[in-house]
Design brief:
alpha+beta, about 30% helix, 8 helices, 15 strands, 7-stranded mixed β-sheet, binds succinic acid, Double-stranded beta-helix
């Protein structure tokens, strides 16, 4: 791909590129358009030591679409987009250390996420991404034929379990969880989705938000999901970013999974995060 305003350096064979030459504090439309294209081409892009603040990060998110209100906060009455500062340390180990795509338990999961490094540990604390496009492409035509068109039931029980650890199991928290279940009932998504902008196919992997493949016996569904869990964990589909404070990663939620590498525990680490609304995943035969 030809870029006039920015330079790209790939960070692995399957996905990921570092973008150089863009000042995120003063981004003209042409440069943003190349950044957008770089995101579609590379699935996750990185900017070293951006020097941006939360407000500029949110403004950048706005250029990709409507920044999301996190469903739990929506249930609690929040009406404006969510900007999260997630801090982990001795009392709160990072809970995102398993392959996932964000919030697949809603009908229209996010399309883009922006994560900026705040406090970084002296050692460790990287994040990894996996290309679900590459993982799909690597399957045999026979396996692709079996998976294409399957639907998976996703729900928020895995999310609620995580929040329960932090909030405790009290009458108040139980009411919030019931409200969340009512507002966001289980939803089905295609196991293989068509990317709405590139037209490419990718596995839609919701990690522990996935309950079962619709129309299958539990043991059939478990076997296929377990095979895929091991398939997407192969390093050939991955890239990894070692953060410095101020770095920004932007990834395409529609074609990737990610996980925090929790090897810095119990050292402290903080990240600044927002996501952009997506649309209903679909599969085109
Ligand atoms: C996330 O899952 O968005 C957080 C990843 C990280 O903390 O590295």
């Amino acid at each position: 791909m030809n870029y006039q305003r920015i330079k790209l350096h790939r960070v692995s064979g399957s996905l990921g590129a570092e973008v150089q030459g863009a000042d995120l504090r003063a981004l003209d439309d042409e440069t943003f358009s190349e950044i957008h294209r770089a995101l579609l081409d590379n699935e996750v892009i990185f900017f070293r030591q951006t020097g941006i603040d939360d407000e500029t990060q949110m403004a950048l998110a706005h250029r990709f679409g409507q920044p999301s209100i996190f469903p739990l906060l929506k249930v609690l009455g929040e009406t404006g987009p969510t900007f999260q500062v997630i801090e982990d340390g001795p009392d709160s180990p990072n809970a995102a250390d398993d392959w996932h795509t964000d919030v697949t338990w809603v009908a229209e999961p996010p399309k883009v996420a922006l994560l900026r490094a705040g406090i970084m540990p002296e050692a460790g604390g990287d994040t990894m991404w996996g290309s679900m496009t590459a993982a799909w492409d690597a399957l045999s035509p026979t396996m692709q034929g079996l998976l294409a068109g399957l639907e998976v039931l996703h729900d928020n029980e895995g999310f609620i379990d995580g929040v329960r650890i932090k909030m405790g199991d009290t009458p108040e928290s139980r009411k919030i969880f019931d409200d969340l279940r009512r507002a966001y009932p289980p939803v089905t998504h295609p196991l293989v989705r068509t990317h709405p902008e590139t037209g490419r196919r990718a596995l839609l992997w919701g990690g522990n938000f996935m309950r079962r493949i619709v129309g299958m016996e539990d043991r059939e569904s478990d076997a296929i999901l377990e095979f895929l869990r091991r398939h997407i964990a192969r390093s050939r589909f991955h890239c990894r970013w070692s953060w410095q404070t101020g770095d920004l990663a932007i990834w395409d939620e529609r074609s990737t999974v990610h996980q925090a590498v929790n090897d810095h525990f119990p050292q402290r680490r903080s990240v600044h995060r927002c996501v952009v609304d997506g649309d209903r995943p679909f599969f085109t035969p």
